[in-house]
Specification:
- The protein has about 350 residues and is an alpha/beta fold.
- It contains 14 helices and 12 strands.
- The protein has 2 domains: about 140 residues, Rossmann fold, CATH 3.40.50; about 170 residues, Rossmann fold.
- It has a 6-stranded parallel beta sheet, sandwiched between helices.
- Helix 9 packs across helix 13 and helix 12 packs across helix 14.
- The relative contact order is 0.12.
Amino acid sequence: MVSRERWLVLSDGARPTEDIYFLESVAPHLRCEGHDGGRLDVRGWRWRLARWVLSRQPGANLVLCRTLPEGALRWLERECGAFGRIVYVIDDDLAAAAADETLPAAYRTRMARAAAQQPRLLALADEVVACSTGLAERLRKCHGNVRVMTPPLIAPLPDLTHFAAAPSAEQPWRLGFHGTRAHLSDLEQIAPALEALQRERDDSELELMLGQHAPPVLAELPRTHCPAPLSWSKFRDYQARHRVHIGLAPLLDTPFNRGKSFIKFLDIASMGGVGVYSNRAPYTEIVEHGVNGLLAEDDPGDWQRCITWLLEQPEAARGMAEAAAERAAGLGVVRCEW
């Protein structure tokens, strides 16, 4: 008989990482095997209660995601021998982000603090779980036990009834960019393509979920909406209700981006779209050009050609969205032993 194990995520607020890579992917499988697990918020005033709970959980396995508050980290460094396995889950190259001058200054500062703490978390971890092969390769220089867990699919795949009507001024096709501010430079690189499309056509609607941080040259375009970024829980609700026809995932060749996963492929499929992706890893590992998405070069003209082709070939675009959903369903299975 397999003994029952307890797994606890020590949460510093990285809810997307915690949910995607453990609580809504791995944890359900562990429960099916008779184990249990949950989230323990260790921030601020909650740390006192969390410490009390942890002191009564000898032998529990711990999951750390990205960072810990300083007090919780110091305590764990002293008390780590009381616990079972400690797994560190990471989905960004923190050091590369801190050094990337194209990223917003506030984001770089936050990443620099996280990167400074990372060696201590790696020292605590029995195992490191990285979201991509590129990130895993970097971390193997710092830790002897690193494995890859690519992003699982935790959102439902919708039907594609929004593809029923051909694009027109009355029923424009929706193009969406739902990246964070960390991808502003990536978006700015394709801005000329989007500007040309929105000024030359009347059958496309562009959504940039960046709020006030959207590049002004794009925010002022016709039929362009810039809703404010949402919290993780609200974004998931929005993702389940909102549909796009074409998702945009530009990714420049930078050290930071080389650690990225293909999660945007899953996000676009979850909103019912077919994606246009930069022609480089990680997308070249999963996108078959013309089958389940399009791969574009860094030239904005190529992005414009790809998007225009989809707008003018609605049946082919729908077929590619169907193929993308099928690929997402296969990719999204958890293939990671815990």
